[in-house]
Amino acid sequence: MNDGAVVAAHDVLIVGGGLAGLRAAIAVAETDPTLDVAVVSKVYPMRSHSVSAEGGAAGVAAADDSLEEHIYDTISGSDWLGDQDAIEAFVHEAPRELLRLEHWGCPWSRQPDGHIAVRAFGGMKKKRTWYAADKTGFHMLHALFQTTLKFREVTRYDEWFVTRLLVDDGRVHGLVAVDLHTGRIQAITAKSVVLANGGCGKVFPFTTNANINTGDGMALAFRAGAPLKDMEFVQYHPTGLPFSGILITEATRAEGGWLLNKDGYRYLQDYDLGKPTPTPELRSMELGPRDRISQAFVHEEEMGRTLDTPYGAVVHLDLRHLGAELIDARLPFVRELCLKYERIDPVTDLIPVRPVVHYMMGGVHTDVNGAAGLEGLYAAGETACVSINGANRLGSNSLPECLVFGARAGRAAAEHASGATAAPHVVAAQAADEARRIEHDLLDRVPWEEDVSTIRTEMQATMEESAGIYRTGEEMTKGADRLRELQERAKRIGVRDTSRTFNTELVGALELANLLDVAECMLASGMQREESRGAHQRTDFPSRDDEKFLVHQLVTRDSDGTPRVEQLPVTITRWPPGERIYGR
Amino acid sequence: MTGEAMERSATDTDLHYRRTPPVFWWTRKPSYFVFVMRELSSLFIAWLVLYLLLFVRAVGRGETAYADFLDWAASPWLVVLNVVAFAFVVLHTVTWFSLTPQAMVLQVGGRRVPPRAIIGAQYAALAVVSAFVLWLVTR
Amino acid sequence: MADADEIADKITDEITDEITMRVARYRPDKDRDPGWQEYTVPQREEWTVLDGLNHVKNEVDTTLAYRWSCRMGICGSCGMNVDGEPKLTCATFLSDYAPGPVTVEPLANFPVIRDLVVDISDFMEKLPRVSPWIIRDEEQSVDDGEYLQTPEELDAYKQFSMCINCMLCYAACPVYGLEPEFIGPAAIALAERYDLDSRDHGARQRLDVLIEEEGVYGCTFVGECTRVCPKHVDPAAAIQRYKLKAAQESVKMFLLPRALRR
Amino acid sequence: MKFRVEPFLWLAFSGGGVMAAIFLPVLAFLFALAFPLGWLDPPDHAHLAAVVGHPITFLVLFGAFVMMLVHAAHRFRFTLYDGLQVKHRFLVAAVCYGGAFLGTFVALHMLGSAT
Ligand SMILES: Cc1cc2nc3c(=O)[nH]c(=O)nc-3n(C[C@H](O)[C@H](O)[C@H](O)COP(=O)(O)OP(=O)(O)OC[C@H]3O[C@@H](n4cnc5c(N)ncnc54)[C@H](O)[C@@H]3O)c2cc1C
Ligand code: SF4
Ligand code: F3S
Ligand code: FES
């Protein structure tokens, strides 16, 4: 019967088979081999979005580099909103985690003497980004996934879609998921649950993110009563391909690529990002931070110095002077993508690019060990917000973040599970409830008054208008109203597909519900932050206001389902807020 | 949950649709067809070995047997068979040579020998062997 | 930034052509056998076959089921047989099939779960059998730094590490279609990837698996796996090289006198 | 390491493949086409008898022919098995390799008769 029956019990359940989730699973197995750990993922682990990361993963390795400097770059990159204790822990542990991945077989690019090679990256003062050509995420994920196969004690639920956390009395006891192959709605109990569901780029119409990045983890936590943090901070990557939104990695600029406006002029020099030099200069010009470069684009567009295409304005990324040999050695995937999707060759042609939604700084609020707001609940990776990224993430910090905090969350979840008791009986009733909700609300509703794709498109348009690179209070309020309406309409969605087998329309409907919740949180949080900081730029409050807003904002769910925003102090240890200076 | 829909739900892998390739699967794509032809060359190779053995036997049996054999070998059906067999042998040689570099990595002085060089070397060997055989039998 | 509607308008202006997609449908709870359904979709230069399917899903028929995610040819989910050839649909352009119709079927050789979704659990079970992870004689602590590996040593296995598990090679390999026990191209390529990795010492362990009937010697070098591989992994080469290696090892072990073995 | 026959069969198959690729074109051309059809004058019997009667020729031809037969048997086994889906694993193998085995004796006999 499709009644949400409890089909299995594990000690630790990991939701998500991306970098963060798999790292957490191994951490559990290593912490206590007697624990029974399982990974639940809506796609096969190697399909997770980590696979598309291109540029690299930061970790201090070079002799001329220091932990202090990586810490400082990350803090100033975060516009001082990152928690400094978390950043310290992160920077200290990142190199070790990256080395561990090396031991697990990741094919990192090397120097001639066999040591790890590092490249420059935006906002970083030293070369410290480890890379595997320009398929870093792909190689990291596959090496990690293949390594987890070695741990026979890790059970996998592939293509199971998690719809709800089972919570009793402030404690998490497991989850409910749809087994996509059979359509069965089933409950799995656990003593600890780690959310590693990745990001939510699909809130926006134009994103580098994959189709599966629908903020499920954030929505699951939010609905279970755990707070989300800093949801207003959405990173735009300056160089996405028009139409598809496919990412052209920052590594192109680290290797020496230039951004040109329609006059062939390196326009970043007009935006306080330093002076153009023929070879790339760290923390300057094209190697400035993403928020500032994306903002410069908007100004160029306003001044009519961009080029028009059917898919919006673009500027050009120029790699021609790098030569075929370097491009083939270090950026082969970029060449492949350009040839395939734009039918141009970066060796001889300019690449049209525009800013594109790329990464969520915000997410499930956790402490430095990944503990989220409820007992037994942990979160890591892009779905979580520890926060090391603050108001703006530095490129190449998020892959190591997945490893460092995935491992920490895994260890903490393991420890918690060792001491915890089995799930109480009430959760079975909750699971049955959830099964009934899905069956009734989504699958049995005839006639179908609304459908998934219309509402999704309207939501995405709303978010683009109200939460773009530049925002105003007015736009966000309007957007929030629209989202309320869409939430109401979404209640009338019916799934036309009545088959239980691999019902992707049902998945779409469940994802849409998550997207809407996450979008609402973004706007609710954004409206409250009356300042401009990092990726949150308000034309009605153009400057940073440390007095009032050097704080995190937590969004929790009110009893009526609407988001409520509270403040939480930022942890500042040794680096008092200062000015973000690039190129000087 | 409505009972009826439930009955019909896929419960297991036994509802998966399994497709088995038809016997003549290799007629569906040119590349499959070439593959099967390549594999069929084996029959003709076996035939040619037999034929050459018969030839040798005839030579061993004396001058008349040899002449008779040559006559027999010129009979139309045998000529047709041998022309076909020869074509298959050529197919075998060409495909075998072109696949070798894929199956074998040769290192010379720490460097990988490029596929073209391997293919070239095989044709060179073919030429030398052919010339030698020709010289040996017609000397 | 340009207004979303404005973009949409410009885009609709551009639509001149249409193409018919013949899509295989199979709903196990309704159909005994797969059938065909035709959809006409706009055909634009930058549209991939996947964009066509998404158009159908969003605008025409919400019940069509297929997998996709990254839409940039790296996650490996969107493999289907397009006009009979296994393809990544996100990297295959509709315009290449103009004027159509273009047929889209689930990947060949795998059981069909539903519409265009196939069951790849067979591969997922085979993969661990070839031990695709670093096996060391002696573990070295991370505190002692990285295992050194020169760029040349990296190059030795790099190509075989590019596999995205998209399963196109399995769909193209007739041997796998006929003999589902065959471990198959991608799994063997991954075994070879670790064997060739200078950090790995697990060749022996993998050999014992791959020398079995369903291992490398099941492959008859059809070579289709390599031809369809979107990531230029060349699994056919991996398998043949493995055969040679396994044969050399066998000769060494069982024919040579003890003194001559390495 | 486990003992399996498959690697040895494959080695023989490959060796035979090389032999066939290099030797057979010229042999087939000369003896199956060019001489019988008179494109080239057939060599006189005495010369040919001397060549095939030589022990080295015997060894070379015997080795090459046996390898080619094993090659053919191995390949044909898979052609039957996969190409034509004759799904009797053991029977097919027995017939094919049995054929090659028989061929070996025939070769020994016929080549021997010429020396
Ligand atoms: C194109 C691109 C390039 C990037 N390049 C870089 C880079 O160079 N350097 C860098 O540091 N960062 C980069 N990033 C960011 C980085 O890749 C991501 O932040 C990171 O990979 C996220 O990993 P994750 O483990 O948190 O989530 P993911 O890898 O996204 O995994 C999420 C997992 O959760 C599962 N899941 C989600 N929802 C559910 C549900 N409801 N039920 C069950 N399972 C579920 C999914 O199946 C999946 O397995 C890039 C991002 C993009 C989009
Ligand atoms: S070898 Fe190529 S075709 Fe096969 S799964 Fe890997 S990437 Fe796909
Ligand atoms: S197509 Fe199949 S038979 Fe071998 S060479 Fe490739 S695995
Ligand atoms: S959608 Fe990821 S490979 Fe096509």
Please write out the topology.
The complex is a heterotetramer of chains A (584), B (139), C (262) and D (115).
Chain B: H1 3-8, H2 30-60, H3 63-73, H4 76-103, E1 107-108, E2 111-112, H5 115-138
Antiparallel strand pairs in B: 1-2
Chain C: H1 4-14, E1 17-25, E2 35-43, H2 49-60, E3 79-82, E4 85-88, E5 102-105, E6 112-114, E7 117-118, H3 121-126, H4 151-158, H5 168-172, H6 174-178, H7 185-195, H8 203-210, H9 224-228, H10 235-254
Parallel strand pairs in C: 1-5
Antiparallel strand pairs in C: 1-2, 3-4, 3-5, 6-7
Chain D: H1 6-34, H2 45-53, H3 55-83, H4 89-114
Helix pairs in contact in D: 1-3, 3-4
Write structural notes for this entry.
The complex is a heterotetramer of chains A (584), B (139), C (262) and D (115). Chain A is α/β, with parallel strands linked by helices and 584 residues long. Among the domains of chain A are: 237-357, Succinate dehydrogenase/fumarate reductase flavoprotein, catalytic domain (Flavocytochrome C3, Chain A, domain 1); 428-546, Up-down Bundle (Methane Monooxygenase Hydroxylase, Chain G, domain 1), CATH 1.20.58.100. Chain A has 15 helices and 22 strands. In chain A, a hairpin with a 5-residue loop joins β21 (551-557) and β22. The longest helix of chain A has 25 residues, at 504-528. Chain A is globular, with a radius of gyration of 23 Å. The model of chain A has no long low-confidence stretch (mean pLDDT 95). Helices cover 72% and strands 3% of the residues of chain B. Chain B has helices at residues 3-8, 30-60, 63-73, 76-103, 115-138, and strands at 107-108, 111-112. In chain B, β1 (107-108) and β2 (111-112) form a beta hairpin. Chain B is flat, with a radius of gyration of 26 Å. Chain C has two domains: 4-118, Ubiquitin-like (UB roll) (Roll); 121-260, Fumarate Reductase Iron-sulfur Protein, Chain B, domain 2 (Orthogonal Bundle). The mean pLDDT of chain C is 92. Chain D is built from four helices and no strands. Chain D has helices spanning 6-34, 45-53, 55-83, 89-114. In chain D, α1 crosses α3 and α3 packs antiparallel against α4 (89-114). Classes of the chains: A alpha/beta (584), B mainly alpha (139), C alpha+beta (262), D mainly alpha (115). Chains in contact: A-B, A-C, B-C, B-D, C-D. Chains A and C meet through α3, α4, α9, α12 and α14 of A and α1, α2 and α4 of C. Bound molecules: flavin-adenine dinucleotide, iron/sulfur cluster, FE3-S4 cluster and FE2/S2 (inorganic) cluster (FES).
